[in-house]
TrEMBL record:
It comes from Vitis rotundifolia. The keyword Membrane applies. The chain crosses the membrane at residues 12-34, 97-115, 127-147. GO terms for biological process: intracellular manganese ion homeostasis; magnesium ion homeostasis. The lineage of its organism: Eukaryota, Viridiplantae, Streptophyta, Embryophyta, Tracheophyta. Residues 8-191 form the CNNM transmembrane domain. It is found in: Membrane. This is Uncharacterized protein.
Length: 331
């Protein structure tokens, strides 16, 4: 009669229902542990601000739950462990001890671990947002036990806030998002070049970006703007041309090519008789961001890079470094 009661009575179906609920509950806790804990705060904040409308909605629901990561982790693990420990107890009332162990392990492995984690790894954002209110209730229920453990973890391991990408990591991430990387990225080559260049500015100085004076085009201050020189200037295609005195290393200023449009080559006007703009000088160790800030003021778009131990000589009433070895221009 006892066996018949277990198989056919209402208690049997009650035990089956409880077992099914425990397996589903354990699976949900296991899946959320993987789904929610695998998403960093940085990822969620990015999705909340710039994701698709559905991703923004989901991320905003999840963020308050995930911010205290150790408390959430302890809550999910406590609930998962409680469900798994309770499962053999209800199975043991239906079948033998060995059968209870075998069935509980099978159910937990298949429906409590593999399937939930596989689903939550793909749809963790949507599932986490859907059950966020339920998780808050669990956090409140498990708070007396989970909170002390989470505080201990905070003290031993830190609060678990994800660090932002380092500069080198961010550059690699940008490269991966380039459409030439073969990974389905949407950034064009020009966009990745600009972003990478901006990230590198902090680490580079004027010496890293300068063009050697031997590779630049400049004109002598005493030269005549005849037909040959005017043709050469036009062929070079520069909007600004440095002007030197006596030797190419002694850059004293620059002329704007557009100002030469009104000059007739037949007049052979001397370069020193046209407007020569002042060209700033920067140390070779000056950071590129500082140079860019100077250029943005609008005073110049070109500078001469000089060494730290440069000497000066009198020329045209102003002191100028004699070892203006290189020219730098962002154009």
């Amino acid at each position: 009669m006892a066996v018949e009661y277990r198989c056919c009575g209402t208690g049997f179906f009650l035990h089956i229902s409880i077992i099914a609920l425990l397996v589903l509950f354990a699976g949900l806790m296991s899946g959320l542990t993987l789904g929610l804990m695998s998403m960093s705060l940085v990822d969620l904040e990015v999705l909340a601000k710039s994701g698709t409308p559905s991703d923004r909605k989901h991320a905003l629901k999840i963020l308050p739950v995930v911010r205290r990561q150790h408390l959430l982790l302890c809550t999910l693990l406590i609930c998962n462990a409680a469900a798994m420990e309770a499962l053999p107890i209800f199975l043991d009332s239906l079948i033998s001890a060995w059968g209870a162990i075998l069935i509980s392990v099978t159910l937990i492995l298949l429906f409590g671990e593999i399937i939930p984690q596989a689903v939550c790894s793909q749809h963790g954002l949507a599932i986490g947002a859907a059950v966020a209110p339920f998780v808050r209730i669990l956090v409140w229920i498990c708070f007396p036990v989970a909170y002390p453990i989470s505080k201990l973890l905070d003290r031993l391991l830190g609060k678990g806030h994800e660090a932002l990408f380092r500069r080198a990591e961010l550059k690699t991430l940008v490269d991966f998002h380039g459409n030439e990387a073969g990974k389905g990225g949407e950034l064009t080559r020009d966009e990745t070049t600009i972003i990478t260049g901006a990230l590198e500015l902090t680490e580079k100085t004027a010496r890293d970006a300068m063009t050697p004076i031997s590779e630049t085009f400049s004109v002598d201050i005493n030269a005549k703007l005849d037909r040959d020189l005017m043709k050469l200037i036009l062929e070079k295609g520069h909007s600004r041309v440095p002007v030197y005195s006596e030797q190419e290393r002694n850059i004293i200023g620059l002329i704007l090519v557009k100002n030469l449009l009104s000059i007739h080559p037949e007049d052979e006007v001397s370069v020193k008789n046209v407007t020569i703009r002042r060209i700033p000088r920067v140390l070779e160790t000056m950071p590129l961001y500082d140079i860019l800030n100077e250029f943005q003021k609008g005073h110049s778009h070109m500078a001469v890079v000089v060494g730290q131990n440069s000497h000066t000589v009198e020329h045209s009433g102003s002191e100028l470094p004699t070892d203006g070895k290189h020219q730098f221009s962002p154009e």
